[in-house]
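Dear support,

I submitted the protein below through the web form. The confirmation email said the job was done, but the results page showed an empty box. After a refresh the structure appeared. I'm attaching both so you can tell me whether what I see now is the final result or a partial one.
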Amino acid sequence: MKASKDFLRVAIVVSRYNSEYTDRLLDGAYRALRDEGLDSDRVNVIRVPGAFEIPVVAAKLANSGEYDTVICLGAVIRSDTPHFEYVAGEAARGIMQASLDSGVPVIFGVMTLNTADQAEVRTRNDDSNRGYEAAKVGVEMAQTISNI
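What the results page shows now:
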């Protein structure tokens, strides 16, 4: 599938956990895709319970042949237990594996943060929003892969 912006198909997998931040990431991603000239009907959003569940859905979407890029959005905030390391590490590993196995760019837009204050800064309604950045990377990578 040739990935011109006119025909680009995008899937976004977004975690419901920490939704006060992930909803803002999704807003940023939509804004970036609009800035790139994509209509919302070219975007499919799938919500999952948390960041740990993102990779399996991302892999299914990437292997479907329906999408030029899959953008993964989540927010994992460190706490007093080692849970953070397991969730963040396995989400990153699974997202990368989905990309490598499928040949489709699967973009890591999962914020791994020490504090909620960091999440606030990274989900502002501007171009520094990590969802905005992830969507821009997704479009660029889809076009790069298409041109190879």
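Response: this is the final, complete result; the empty box was a page-load delay. Strands lie at 10-15, 43-48, 69-77, 106-113.
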